Amino acid sequence: MSASDPQLRVEDLQVHFETDEGVVKAVDGVSFDVGRGEMLGIVGESGSGKSVANMTILGLTRASNAQISGRIMFEGRDLLELDDDSLREVRGAQISMIFQDPLSSLHPFYKVGSQLVEAIQVHQALDDKAAMARAFELLGLVGILDSSRRAG
Predict the structure, then answer these.
(1) Which of 27, 100, 108, 129 pairs with 45 at a CA distance of 20 to 30 A?
(2) Torsion angle of the four alpha carbons 64, 65, 70, 75, in this order, in degrees rounded to the nearest 10
């Protein structure tokens, strides 16, 4: 991968699901690039395939009834070719998404810091103190001031 290559390249992504009523074409030919340090917002009507496309990038649509084609190149590797264990190493540690579903977001009854620590420890072998330090760092990176206080 050269420095001029995008960090993420999605090429002609198609995600179709076999259902009792026939084939549902949830994503039908999506392509885009995201360069290092860039952000991409995907907008569209409800049911247009935004979430399915992003969940497929993360490997979360690998069901027996899913037909997935195209290429998802992340830092020179095709994520569609990775086995589940290899993909799990990438997901969360190197690439992730913020889901729009409030049930998969931060829970208002639990401290933000403890939720971040839990997510960090799923992907990194860090003790509680190191994971909390990383949580503070991440909160700071997204502009949350006084992250040590706000985590609580």
Answers:
(1) 108
(2) -40
Going 35 to 36 to 42 to 48, the CA torsion angle's sign is positive
Per-residue pLDDT at 76 exceeds 70 = yes
Phi, psi for 76 (deg, rounded to 5): 85, 0
Q: What is the DSSP string of the chain?
A: --TTS-SEEEEEEEEEEEETTEEEEEEEEEEEEE-TT--------TTSSHHHHHHHHTTTT--TTEEEEEEEEETTEEGGGS-HHHHHHHBTTTB----S-GGGS--TTS-HHHHHHHHHHHHS---HHHHHHHHHHHHHHTT-SSHHHHT-
Select the more confidently predicted residue: 148 or 57: 57
pTM (two decimals):
0.68
- Output the pLDDT for position 135: 92
Predicted pLDDT at 2: 67
Question: What is the amino acid identity at position 1?
Answer: M
Domain boundaries, the chain: 8-100, 106-150
